[in-house]
Amino acid sequence: MTPSIPREVKGIMMNQKLLKLVCNTPGIPGFEDPIQEIVEEMLRPTCDEVRRDRMGNVIGQKKATKPSVGERPLRVVLAAHADEIGMMVKHLDGNGFIRFEPVGGLNAQAIVSQRVIVHGREPVNGVIVPTNGDKLPAMKDMLIDVALPRDKVCELIEVGDVITFAQELVLLNDKVYMGRNFDDRIGTYCLLEAMNHLGDTAVDVYAVSTVQEEKGVRGMPVAAFAIEPDVGLAIDGSLTWGAHIGKHENICALGEGTGIYLMDGLTIADRRLLRFLFDLCEKHKVPYQRNIGGGTDASAIQRTGIGALATTIGAPTRYMHSTVQLAHGDDIAATVKLLVAFLENAHHLKELVR
Question: What is the pTM of this model?
Fold first, then answer.
């Protein structure tokens, strides 16, 4: 039986084609070019200017279409990181097996027996091999088998080649998607869809697809330094309870609305910005949840220059940093709707930042 396509959430429909494109394109920290090329292409019709900086961040600017006379429009940032966790080839042994270095926060339990793609002189399929016995091997002892003779392996692959997980986007049931990189490709999707649905604004909007977030929020500080934002939202997954994860640990749930971060490991949200977001959700009937999450690009937005109002919002995501991350279509649509409402009303925040 074929699962049905998720229904709309008050005017926002899931763009299945874009979601698949964004989630199936590789791009680990420092090697984001394939996904950034797509983001650049998708932002050009909706922005007045699109550029890529020296770090590799893509920055799209949409100028205010109804600015206040005699006042500089607020500079408002939306930021989603393009990078996904992955690996790099570290060593080729005498039998053609590959040792690797994690790039980003890999979970050893989650990656054993997973299919991977080694991006060598040509893409090479492989598997992360399980060991004999019940003991989980340390990451440094794990091996990738590409099932080729060593001479062929050395011909196609060298130290430094990038490795990504092979899992592609799946519609798991009629409303829930599964993928390897919803942290943060759901954010990338929401960024692009918000710009596609955006109407007139009285603020200058900066849509930023950042790099190297998974290696310590490295890209956003550079973009924020150039933009000097007044207000900003990072778009990232909200921590969600599930199997082996209690409701007291991760407080968001699938299917109950977008998550709004109260605090994370790097940022304490401005209470006035939070109230503004809560009020927008109530006014526009956007389902939402309060979230306490991990560190995001919001920290760099908040602490650049003289400072900015900042927090993070995003669709709840189960099993982050695994290859079976889950997200609900209604939560994704709710995130897009809140982003659009936020941008179209952000000029009301001007008294808080002047």
Answer: 0.94
Residue 321 vs residues 146, 168, 264: alpha-carbon distances, Å: 23, 14, 17
- Which residues have C-beta within 8 Å of that of residue 345, sequence separation ≥ 6? 280
Answer whether residue 64 is part of any domain: yes
Is residue 151 located within the same domain as residue 193?
no
H helices of 146-303, in order, are 150-156, 182-197, 220-227, 271-284, 298-302
32, 84, 193, 213: the active-site residue: 213
pLDDT tens digits, 87-108: 999 999 999 999 999 999 999 9
Kindly list the distances between the CA atom of residue 225 and the CA atoms of 202, 216, 221, 266, in Å, as whole numbers in the listed order: 22, 17, 6, 18
Nearest 5°: phi and psi at 93?
A: -85, 180
Distance between CA atoms of residues 147 and 150, nearest Å:
9
Same domain, 218 and 76: yes
213 given a catalytic annotation:
yes
CB 27 within 8 A of CB 84: yes
Domains identified in the chain, total number: 2
Query: Is there a single domain that holds both residue 232 and residue 337?
Result: yes
What's the CATH number where 123 sits?
Answer: 2.40.30.40
Give the integer Cα–Cα distance in Å for 36 and 39. 5
Question: Which range of residues forms the domain containing residue 149?
Answer: 86-165
Query: What's the pLDDT tens digit per position in 331-352?
Result: 999 999 999 999 999 999 998 9
